[in-house]
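Reviewer 2 asked us to include a model.

Predict the structure of this chain.
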Amino acid sequence: MKPEQVARSYDALADVWDSDDYPREYGLEQHHRAVAFLRSEIPSGGAALDIGCGSSGRIIDLLLDHGFEAEGLDISRRMLKRARARHPAVTFHHADIVGWTFPRDYAFITAWDSVWHVPLEDQLPVLGRIMNALQPGGVLIFTTGGVDEPQEKRDAAMGPPMYHAAPGIPNLLRLVDEKGCVCRHLEYDQHPELHVYLVVQKPAG
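Predicted model (structure tokens):
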């Protein structure tokens, strides 16, 4: 699937993700853990970016509660319309992360269940640019498929057609090392499902 097709699929899900039925606690415990790594280096404040922010606003709320200056980015116009209605004071960017230019460096970046929609051949370059956009001491949390080798698939488990890909954990860990970062946490948080999240930190020194 091309990025514009993924955008259309998420346009179709915007109302669902903004409804009271959406599991708003999903992923928040993992984000609190990631912020704790950051606060050992950057005690307060800082800019934070939610990549693939969606319409629910749950992660934006968490970032604001932790004292961040929060921004959101999404490829879906309908997701962003609802996100802006929830948080009119927050800056939101409508863009495909593959070609997006980061406007500044960030203390905290989250890409929860988002970057895995990027075409497989672009995922490692995109994640590398995200790591480059971290401030010294900054933290990135992101999800991926818990596979050893690169894989991609298409399905309609959420209703609309969707694309997922993963470069494989060994390739991800090599990229973290190449970018001068450290993997602070890697967990199969929904085992036996192959859903993995990583917490990556750029050293402060």
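The chain has a mean pLDDT of 93. Residues 3-201 form a domain with the Rossmann fold fold (CATH 3.40.50.150). We have added this to the supplementary material.
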